[in-house]
């Protein structure tokens, strides 16, 4: 074999090996994805699906502001063009960004939730924002009760006090806790999970999981080992910059997931979300 042919064969073998390694990456279910259309999307639907494919993201909890972006992704799934990605749609109770600070007292938003639900494919309501006693309103209780009645999950960007209030509104509520309290101490997180069996922690923007060297901290290792069925991961693509860094976000998850026992890593990466959002 000539040197040129040998080099070509070697390069091809390296390409195959790289492809095999890429295929071995743990699959991820992105349980906090915003595909906002306000006023237009950062990527077109096919481009978004390519981002997921590139990162071996095989499922998404899809929300958008307004809900137009979620409709577009559901249309792709209905047409068989979602590239194998499981699209799990949630109703976003926002029309524009300003609704973040007023939705919990606005009866028009509850009408929006009810109207969107008529599409027949939603699995939850959120992500919505609540802090402290802002959760203690008639509109929030109506939303929680509606979710329980329709067997929908709630995706709550909330502090611990607001989570307590949501659960007090209706103890049958099923809550995905966006960011798992951000910087709430791990022992407090553990107490919340112990108190509420239908509370799951989503880990985007969550601080303290790894130390400055990228090593999983002992406190979070214990949490994951104690509650392996109660955590999810997500990108939180709320601004264009998060889409631009999507590859790095997924690589960051895989770096610390690789430090866990494989069975636990698989649950957090995708298994827990699959279990929650199994076909009805």
Provide the fold topology:
Layout lengths: L2 H21 L4 E7 L10 H10 L2 E7 L4 H11 L7 E6 L15 H11 L6 E7 L7 H12 L3 E6 L1 H10 L5 E3 L8 H10 L3 E4 L15 H9 L4 E2 L7 H5 L1 H12 L4 H15 L4
Parallel strand pairs: 1-2, 2-3, 3-4, 4-5, 5-6, 6-7, 7-8
Mind explaining what this structure looks like?
The structure is a single chain. The protein has 280 residues and is an alpha/beta fold. The protein has a single domain, classed as Metal-dependent hydrolases (TIM Barrel, Alpha-Beta Barrel), CATH 3.20.20.140. It has eleven helices and eight strands. It has helices spanning 3-23, 45-54, 68-78, 107-117, 138-149, 160-169, 186-195, 218-226, 240-244, 246-257, 262-276; strands spanning 28-34, 57-63, 86-91, 124-130, 153-158, 175-177, 199-202, 231-232. The longest helix is centred in the N-terminal third of the chain and has 21 residues, at 3-23. It is globular.
């Amino acid at each position: 074999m000539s040197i040129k042919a040998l080099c070509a064969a070697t390069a091809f073998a390296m390409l195959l090996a790289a492809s095999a390694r890429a295929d071995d990456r743990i699959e991820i279910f992105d349980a906090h994805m915003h595909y906002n259309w306000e006023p237009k999307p950062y990527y077109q639907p096919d481009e978004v699906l390519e981002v997921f494919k590139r990162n071996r993201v095989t499922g998404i909890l899809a929300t958008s502001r307004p809900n137009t972006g979620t409709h577009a992704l559901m249309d792709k799934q209905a047409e068989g063009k979602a590239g194998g990605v499981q699209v799990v749609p949630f109703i976003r109770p926002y029309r524009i960004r300003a609704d973040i600070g007023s939705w919990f007292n606005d009866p028009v938003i509850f009408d929006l939730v009810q109207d969107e639900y008529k599409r027949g494919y939603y699995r939850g309501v959120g992500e919505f924002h609540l802090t402290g006693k802002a959760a203690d309103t008639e509109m929030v209780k109506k939303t929680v009760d509606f979710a329980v009645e329709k067997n929908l999950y709630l995706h709550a960007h909330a502090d611990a006090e607001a989570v307590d209030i949501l659960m007090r509104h209706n103890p049958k509520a099923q809550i995905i806790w966006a960011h798992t309290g951000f910087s709430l101490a791990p022992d407090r997180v553990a107490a919340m999970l112990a108190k509420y069996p239908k509370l799951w922690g989503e880990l985007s923007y969550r601080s303290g999981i790894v130390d400055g060297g990228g090593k999983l901290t002992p406190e979070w290792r214990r949490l994951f080992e104690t509650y392996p069925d109660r955590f999810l991961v997500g990108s939180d693509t709320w601004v264009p910059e998060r889409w631009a860094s999507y590859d790095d976000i997924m690589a960051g998850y895989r770096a610390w997931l690789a430090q866990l026992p494989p069975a636990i890593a698989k649950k957090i990466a995708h298994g827990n979300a699959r279990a929650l959002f199994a076909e009805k």
